Amino acid sequence: MMHRAAIALLAAGLSATPAMADLLRPDGTTIDCYCTDTQGDRVELGEVICLHVGGRSFNAQCQMSLNNPMWRELNEGCLSSALDPEPGPAPPMSPAPDRAG
């Protein structure tokens, strides 16, 4: 019984969406924690994006380390949904053979 509960709890944690991980100051005010991408846009903790840095492309996740947001490289290269360029014009079709013969 305890084993099932642990598996259910683990599965729920793995399927959760990235959470906003704000920190609280001693006076109770919120410190908003997030990363920024190479254009300076905000990226929430837990999100994975493709970074292009120093001529390299890699997937990285926004994480916290020692109370500081940072990028952790996950793997080299990035997935792309880009399509191949449009093909050129189709070659001309040859006339159909005469079957009336």
Keyword list:
single chain; 101 residues; alpha+beta; Complement Module, domain 1; 3-stranded antiparallel β-sheet; two-stranded antiparallel ribbon; 1 helix; 14% helix; 35% strand; rod-shaped; disordered N terminus
Structure description:
It is a single chain. The strands form three sheets. The protein has a three-stranded antiparallel sheet with strand order 5-6-7, with no helix packed on it. Strands 1-2 form a two-stranded antiparallel sheet. Strands 3-4 form a two-stranded antiparallel sheet. It has about 100 residues and is α+β, with helices and mostly antiparallel strands. It starts with a helix and ends in a 25-residue tail after the last strand. It has one helix and seven strands, in the order αβββββββ. The protein has a domain at about 20-75: Complement Module, domain 1 (Ribbon). The radius of gyration is 26 Å and the shape is rod-shaped. The longest helix has 14 residues, at about 1-15. Helices cover about 15% and strands about 35% of the residues. This is Secreted protein. It comes from Roseivivax lentus.
